[in-house]
Amino acid sequence: MLSVKELTRRFGGFTAVNALSFELEKGEILGLIGPNGSGKSTTFNVIAGLYAPSAGSVQLDGREIGGLPPYRICQLGLARTFQIPRPFRKLTILENTVLAAHYGAGGQIGRAEAERRAHDALELIGLPRDPGASVEGLGAAGLKKLEMARALATQPKLLLADESLGGLDEAEMNQAAEMLERIRNERGISIIWVEHIMGVLMKVIDRCIVLDHGELIAEGAPAEVTRDPRVIEVYLGSDAEAVHRQLDRQQSAAEAG
Ligand SMILES: Nc1ncnc2c1ncn2[C@@H]1O[C@H](COP(=O)(O)OP(=O)(O)OP(=O)(O)O)[C@@H](O)[C@H]1O
Question: Residues 139, 196: one domain?
Fold first, then answer.
């Protein structure tokens, strides 16, 4: 459903993403990993339309979206969450989500339909739907949920989730990972997930791609990619053994039943 070909993004003389190519299948959860500054957010920003590509193409269901403005890309079915949630603090949770529904529909739906979409998203995410519920009381986990609900209210077929777990405790992280899996399983939404917390990421992704200095250095199933010597050298380092142990446990659990 998403096809990225030879995508390059430069800032002045600096190349942040260099000739990146990858494909995403419908219903897949793809992990996008790599060291700080390797180009993950820039890749998201180009796919979602915040930056135009310097070269290369991005196709969503066969249609070129590279260089389109973010609102057009959103209307075509691509939503993203940001590392740092920035809801409208003066609006309620419901109002924030209704606004997102209007944005995703390009103003082509009425108030009742926008509210229906917002209610549906808030219910799936597990946030209060009553009209008085305020953003103010939400902690880090609640704000991230709201970010996700706003993305879902735009009715995407592809969701780009940017480091959704920063600032959460372990139980909240596991809930967030389960939520992404539910979004895929119940709604058929494809997901690309940028996340540094490998233990949680590995529980839900089908496949991952690894960037280093803006270039793709590995691609495949988590068990293969995390054993790639270059991925261990540039990214996993001393965490590699713990990641392998977890993947082995997951495989044994899957085989047992
Ligand atoms: N608007 C910009 N102008 C100039 N340089 C930029 C801009 N955005 C990103 N960069 C540079 O591009 C490189 C890739 O940054 P990017 O944020 O995409 O990396 P990342 O893999 O998402 O990092 P992190 O894991 O720390 O979020 C960095 O060296 C960054 O400084």
Answer: no
